[in-house]
Design brief:
Elements: E1 8-10, H1 11-14, E2 27-31, H2 34-38, E3 46-51, H3 80-97, E4 98-108, E5 111-113, E6 116-118, H4 121-124, E7 130-138, E8 154-161, H5 175-178, E9 183-185, H6 203-213, E10 220-223, H7 230-237, E11 241-246, H8 249-260, H9 266-275, E12 278-279, H10 282-287, E13 303-304
Parallel strand pairs: 1-2, 2-11, 3-4, 3-10, 7-9, 10-11
Antiparallel strand pairs: 4-8, 5-6, 7-8, 12-13
């Protein structure tokens, strides 16, 4: 891996030192146990995070159309109560390291085991976070086409928010972001092109980062299960710093190599940025005395494009 050694850290290098904004540089990939590393991050460092943890699918409950999800160094098969408590512990540490007013997007899914349904809300309500929204990721493809239930093609993203004081609602999204709705449609990453067993498609963390941080002011993006590096790549290409954690040396190396070649993925980022555009907002139309109802004349349209770091 042709990288600056300072961009990759290992748990045993850190001892009891705190990871602060000052040492991040462009960003850091950190090899080690997620909870252990989170314990070493300073308070209030992160602005936004996005991740998809292992789902505790017992390394077998994936459906006969898809190969079993087996990670490099982690056995995704623990008692469900133990799994859920660990998720609570991780999410509470992420809450601590996130600045007030910050957000974390947590991708998971509803699971069944021997007729019992496990819903992410079972443990999310036990965390310190304010649960701001549930977003449906329509993956448009099912891993299991048996008829025990209607084919499950969706996963969920939970927008978790760390309030400023007692203000639970937080800042309003821009119209160009909010218009993307609470149903996000897009197929998963092609497993033939990415050797990680469960990679994000690049547009997904990019959409989170654009919507929450924008591209004008640099922020810090966390993914505590960085895997093949998708979130870090999105952060880098959008002008933000990143912290990516994984216990697998192979995945850290995979992520590092991908970051080295990040410019080759810029087209996908531009495609996502193009979706974050809007015609005149409700507020602008109202201030101009224009029609703000559902039905308005076509000749009353005026296009306003969101500026970004990439406008020349």
């Amino acid at each position: 891996m042709n990288r600056n050694d300072q961009s990759v850290l290992k748990d045993n290098m850190l001892d009891n030192k705190k990871i602060t904004e000052d040492i991040l540089g462009e960003g850091k990939l950190i090899e080690g146990d997620t909870l252990s590393i989170l314990n070493k991050i300073d308070d209030n460092v992160v602005n936004v995070g996005v991740t998809s943890p292992p789902y505790n699918k017992q390394e077998k409950h994936k459906g006969w159309l898809v190969k079993n999800v087996v990670y490099d160094t982690y056995k995704d098969a623990v008692p469900e109560s133990e799994y859920q408590q660990y998720q609570v512990d991780v999410l509470n540490e992420i809450y601590r390291v996130t600045a007030s007013g910050g957000s974390f997007f947590y991708n998971h899914k509803i699971r069944w085991d021997r007729g019992n349904m496990y819903h992410p809300m079972d443990w999310l309500r036990k965390t310190k976070w304010t649960i701001k929204q549930e977003i449906i990721w329509d993956r448009m493809i099912a891993g299991n086409i048996r008829g025990w239930r209607f084919w499950q093609v969706e996963e969920r993203l939970y927008w978790l928010y760390k309030p400023i004081g007692d203000k639970l609602i937080g800042k309003e999204l821009k119209s160009c972001d909010a218009k993307l709705t609470s149903i996000w449609r897009g197929v998963p990453e092609d497993g033939r092109k990415n050797p990680h067993p469960a990679p994000f498609p690049l547009w997904l963390p990019a959409r989170v980062i654009i919507s929450i941080l924008g591209t004008e002011t640099q922020g810090i993006v966390l993914d505590p299960y960085i895997g093949s590096g998708t979130t870090a790549v999105a952060a880098k290409l959008l002008g933000h710093k990143y912290i990516g954690i994984d216990r697998s040396e192979a995945y850290i190396e995979m992520a590092g190599n991908r970051l080295d070649n990040a410019p080759s993925e810029m087209l996908k980022i531009r495609e996502e940025l193009a979706l974050h555009q809007v015609q005149d907002t409700f507020k602008n139309r109202k201030s101009k005395g224009k029609n703000v109802g559902k039905y308005r004349s076509i000749d009353d349209e005026s296009e306003v494009i969101q500026s970004t770091l990439f406008d020349q």
